[in-house]
Write a structure and sequence with these properties.
This protein is mainly β. It is 4% helix and 32% strand.
Amino acid sequence: MRALRRRRGGAAVLVLALLCCAGPREASALMAGAPPDSPALRQDPNTATSAWRGVGSLTVGAATYSAVAITTRHVLTAAHVVGGIAPAQIRFVLNTGGSPVSLAAEAVTLFPSASFPYDDLAVIRLSGDIPAPATPYPILTRAITTGQVITLVGYGASGNGDSGVSVTSSASVRRRGVNVVDAIRTTLDNSGRSSLFLLHDFDGPGGNGSLGGTTLGNAVETGLAGGDSGSPVFAWVDGVTWLVGISNFVTSPTSGAPVNYRFGTIGGGILLSDPRFLAWLKETTGNTLYTPPAQSEAEVPALPVWATGTLALGLAARILRGRGNRAGGG
């Protein structure tokens, strides 16, 4: 998609206001709370012992996004980040201490029905294996529910929740923060399409965010912003850190309002436990997905009835892009 999508004469729908339509915007990434919290305090150190050493920056032309290792040779990101781009213009960069390691893309495979924001996934096969100490992450095959605590990890810039984006992006600066799954949806508009989404709001210090729930704390809770497309969502389940989703959009809680990335902003991403995605990932990676030694194979529960409804907020969603967007990109 390369333009605004609206439905005339119908109910309020999700307006996909792609950043390309308004020109390049400043890239930004995981947000900090209000001062004294700061973007600097949200940085994850580039060390060999970081739990997030398998999360790398993804250079697409002149732009920087995020991707995560799912095998020693494959990384996962959002389809809208790399769709239509030649592999020669894509590199995966790992920051594990010392000099960054840059790996060229060898091939890009989009999920067959990917169209932002639905089914918005892409697998990149690298020209070589990711080097130690970076390691891939296992994908959780069973559903998560609302209330699940999640960790967001990504590259880009940052800012404070009370004032917005203020710090420029860097392909060598990885940030992390925590949030809670506030809602699970299968559709975001009246397009007739469906996917499996997780949603979370950026609660302020006092809580009571756009989707309800309490805050995790000013120095802990984070929100997405432009430049975080393709960034992974993790959850700690049964003693294992699992990859559960890929972030791909943000939206304002007020219909028609611009996205300012401040407290109240809603973020979301693709849930990977959809059986369609799991089968595709297995096939695309040649059945080499990483599995931890003690993976739990609990029965996958059915989605609750409310999860199949439309997100009736009249939201103005944006692809998580940033400065340096590729020509014609969003």
